[in-house]
Batch of 2 targets.
Target 1
Amino acid sequence: MNKLLRTVSAAALYAVATFALPMPSEAAEWDIAKAAAPYKGTELNVVFLDRPGYRAIIKLLPEFEKATGIKVNYEIVPYENTREREVLNFSGQGDLSIALVDLVWIGEFAENGWILPVDKFANDASITDPNLNLKGFFPLLLDAFGTWGGTVYGLPFDNYSGLLFYNQCMLKDAGFDKPPATWKELLEVYAPKLTDKDKKQYAFALQSLRGETQSADSFMRSLWPHGGSLLDKDFKSNLLSKESQAGLQYRQKLMEYMPPGIVSWDHAEAVNALAQGQVAMITEWSAFYPTLTDPKTSKLGDCLAVAPEPAGEAGRLPALGGFSLAVAAQAPEEEQKAAWIFIQWATSEAIARAYVDAGGVSGRMKVYEDPQVKATYKFVEPMVASWQKGVPEYRPRFPAWPAVSEVIAEFGTKMMLGEVTVEGGSKEIGNRMEAILKQEGYYDGKKKLLQ
């Protein structure tokens, strides 16, 4: 882990541990209607994604709006366009009241002053839930999704862990009674037996569409388990290391057992391929579990099974992804306070079970302690296990990530298509990435490596 990211994590966890609200020994039930009364009629604007976690909160919105009189206007935007849409809105002092913050955007949003620290509002008892309980979030999630430079800006919402979803019926038919424990086993033992190109059936699908899906879900996912990384301890490219090259070469070999055209597949295509029995295994975010269990969208039924992502030479290092909700600095003060009330409600322990039942993935620890939740949702135990020691630096969270991501997406795609070699593409990414970081001031003291 490089020094920047290790320090960010340590500082964030310290902030979570020390940040506390003045609370009685037994917190009273929050009268959200009373808290929201001064803001009745306020309209909030937020960007949502077309994913299960957002559809889940939309189902619950009428309850919030009825109780508070606050209206939440949401626009459904494709993930690939979300950051640009928000940045343009913030730069132009637009109408967004709430920021949807991916873990790799938190540095950019915080350093540009587009989002406000939680403690600006949390110390105001008139608008703060006495049961806010920041320590009730998984520390990893509050650190990775909501914290920058030791300051908490947002509360975890729509939280992901990379999991292995698989068709246990297909595996059984191929002679396997359990999923692969390692990536090596997946490639060398499982993949050949689970692939029948004449029948258009494949062992695995790795969503790799050019854009953030390519850079994060495909390229970066190939580095960590093999011991590779994007950057070394000096913030220089580590892509030519033996471990990084092994991970990227592994991806090229695994493509033999993936559907043709995988470089144009986004999450929806990978999930649908598993749901329709076209592939036997995918590594996908926990948030897609509802899609795979819905009989309207999936043929899997009891054949669906879930396990942790396979381990590599460096151990089991699952992907980590997700978002936080933060108050937009550009919003008028009254709107900011109304936004804070909504953010607390949407991420609260009080609605966590209802949110999970509606198809969302809560960042609250308590809801997953319920035996009924564990028994009902197959993804819970492997997901919770991965959140105990996941890696927030799975994707670097520095403000330069969006520019770096575009370079990775371009040359990561060319690698998969065979337009450049793995080594040649790695050199190109490294050179361009270091040029971006140099321009941003990471090598001459203009920007501190330690946040």
Target 2
Amino acid sequence: MISQALNDQITRIGPNTDAGNVLRHYWQPAALSDELTGGFPVAVNLLGERLALVRSESGAMSLKTRIVPEGEPAAYCPTPQEITIDPTGATYPAHEIKGAVFAYMGPGDPPEFPNFDCFRAPDSHVFAFKGLWRCNWLQALEIGIDPAHASFLHRFLEDEDPSDGYGKQFRDKAAHTDMPMTQVLREYPRPEIQVDETDYGLKITALRHMENDLTHVRVTNQIFPEAICIPMSREMTITQWHVPIDDENCYWFTIFTSFNNPVNKDLMRDQRLKEHRLPDYAPLKNRENNYHYDPAEQETLTYTGMGLDINVHDQWAVEGMGAIQDRRQEHLGRSDVAIIRYRRMLRKAIADLAAARPEDLPMQGRADVAAILGPLSNDAIAPTENWQSASHAADIARRAECPWDASV
């Protein structure tokens, strides 16, 4: 448990807040390229500021302060005709890449983009999407760095044919086996979790020890300050930012990256638009309709009774904590080691900025940010005695067969 003052410090992100200052030192996803239609400014609510995304005649983009229509809620996206740009306000640089527009709202020149797989894969091999969650960004991030939650929150009581699961997480077979991932997660629910600090944040390894001296190795990552990179399947990874709209609402922005085949963008977009509405990308299943909870389904098919889309499971869990989770009453355990390490990293970054040491923030003090590659995000089943080298070898083999330069 932590104090209210500390909880406020690590969750609130408006201008001149401690956590907000840290996030402003990094590029933040502001909009999807799909939203840039008609040549009009696009309303963007980001880090507690009301902004408009504007493209100049030269094609360059920037975020400008906008005058807010009276009564507009924080997460509402008005039509372009309702946007009025304040010429005396702040202007922030923006950069479009791989289906998303990133903005830099911090001091000085923007940092380079790391050379993560999602940024260097060709456009044919990436797909970007987002979704609205009615909760603080930190609890949205923390569910993504908890490897144990998948065995419970995403527990499927029946295993479907993995070949029918394109574009859906946990609808694959575990590498080097015929066992569906849903079965692995269900039958081995208490992983051993190891956390290592990296140039970009944290590497999180979940070890599910199986019979016959085999171990399922699942490597995920926390990319500082508020992103994760996780395996979606052997074919794809998910790089996902948990971006604050304000203190009580956030968007998850995801870039799906395929190692081998081009992504089927139309199918992936259609899959997700069946679960979200436009223009605000709010999920159709939400608190107001009890996330379409079905007790009959809960008895026979899923742990939550809320359908097969795992985003809905996560949404229910993080929104159920309240707009800002009250961490004064929490009791973290052994499986929360990544959450504990991340909070220490965030608090150190806050302290480094307070001491005027921005170069000590992850990825901020190096001249070769573009040399940060990867990261490794995959699952594999390996002999327990050499799981580490076998997991690394599985990633290298996948990259060697890749039609684009995925070498590390």
